[in-house]
Design brief:
Two copies of one chain form a homodimer. Chain A is α+β, with helices and mostly antiparallel strands. Chain A is built from eight helices and twelve strands. Chain A is globular, with a radius of gyration of 18 Å. The interface between A and B is medium-sized, with 25 and 25 residues.
Chain lengths: ~300, ~300
Amino acid sequence: MTQHDPYPSRRDNRPAVLERREPVLHAGADAAGPLSRDQLERFERDGFLVVENVLTEGEVAALIDELELLRASFEGREDPVAIAEPESGELRSVFMVHQINQAYRRLAHHPNIMDVARQILADEVYIHQSRINLKPGFKGKEFYWHSDFETWHVEDGMPAMRAVSATLPLTENTHYNGPLMLVPGSHRRFVSCIGETPEDNYKRSLRKQETGTPDNETLKALVDAGGIEAPLVQPGSMLLFDCNTMHGSASNITPFPRSNVFFVYNAVSNQVTSPFGGRRPRPEFVATRETMSPLDPRSR
Amino acid sequence: MTQHDPYPSRRDNRPAVLERREPVLHAGADAAGPLSRDQLERFERDGFLVVENVLTEGEVAALIDELELLRASFEGREDPVAIAEPESGELRSVFMVHQINQAYRRLAHHPNIMDVARQILADEVYIHQSRINLKPGFKGKEFYWHSDFETWHVEDGMPAMRAVSATLPLTENTHYNGPLMLVPGSHRRFVSCIGETPEDNYKRSLRKQETGTPDNETLKALVDAGGIEAPLVQPGSMLLFDCNTMHGSASNITPFPRSNVFFVYNAVSNQVTSPFGGRRPRPEFVATRETMSPLDPRSR
């Protein structure tokens, strides 16, 4: 039996743009939680929000120390959770950090982060994916424009737009070292992408995004409508963005690495099902199917 | 007989940093010409300078029209002066534009450009290389850090640091569409690069710079000392930079192309000789050896 798919993508050789079916704020702008009404309204309008003073300097320093331990632990061995840069071989991402490291596990439960996700999604939440992105200096590759939801829907089976991402920089972001760029307002449309998903696409797409990217014409229309913003979020602050906000980043040829922590909070009512693209699901470390029960605030 | 080489590069597997032998302002900061003493001093200090009000809006519009004619003229045929993007095949550069197009020929003789080069170099000048760079939107590739002089010395036989580049944007530059980044102060040192020059390197290096690039440690030291600047030069203005200023640009994934005109003015007393790298010279359209007589102001 064919699953009904409200957001078809990669099925046709013509792109399409569909209206978003779910709200952005699942309990509106009056929802109780860490964010003010004004912050919630900006998130709803733009599809992203910078929140300051989320972590103290000491908390950031401790996370950087843990990251160095993690990096050292992967040296000289292959591990599926550790993804390398295509050319240099340097560590690019570490997945499921909230499951393999106690400090990052506690970070995922931090009230300034997790409670914001609950406020926006109006539900208990679990971590669909977590990772540390390490964009090395000199040879850090670009990441082409994409909506995360498009991938999570097609490849992971996430039914609806009821997830939010939190990214917390561990290094200074400048205009020069490949900061995240976002298209304000792009979260209100679903861009149905052309082309098919190759089998085991994640092995390539975690290094270089090629499928699930918008066609030039649609991207240009989104940017003409909303522009491009690259908020220079600093360590201690957090960039929140909706699961469907179009984003990407240019290459980083500066000597300065760009590292950040990335948590995807999904509503428990939006647990993943069979991938809508019909392929077998991506592996557990990229998109969990085994640990979809709500995060417990007692783990803080 | 071996040529004496004051700036050896690509001869060793260890990098080296040498002091610059020539001045930056060849007749000092009192030289007569379009630039003020203050502008000359900033150029001397940083190795680059933004000069505003070089062209009128009408002049820029006319150049853009000519560029579209040029672009159309290359469609569907191969021409060595027209370089394509490695992946998309889109036009990336047109070389020797001042020889193949009358409007760009006159631009090279424009008093606001050519006379600035004469003021800095304290000599009559000729065009060592000219081109239009068209960094397409969506898929514009990065250009890694390099000193132009390093290439011109090793591959073209330019003896000394007595050349200056003028770049004039034809499109808006933003932080997002891969603007030129420069390292202030880097022009005072010569970074001797590691590795050898492959035969016919220009065929690759015009698309993607790989040889003649600084090692990570030296680049980091230059950036630690001088920082990185990406001046957002707008159409009508000009970015001047010394032949030895370290520069590069990140990829451009935005829908916005980044096009500019690029002229290299060399002092006639600094005409090229045999390439110091010992290979055969690059072709005429990349680095002239046939038209090294001074530009004549009557061609304006």
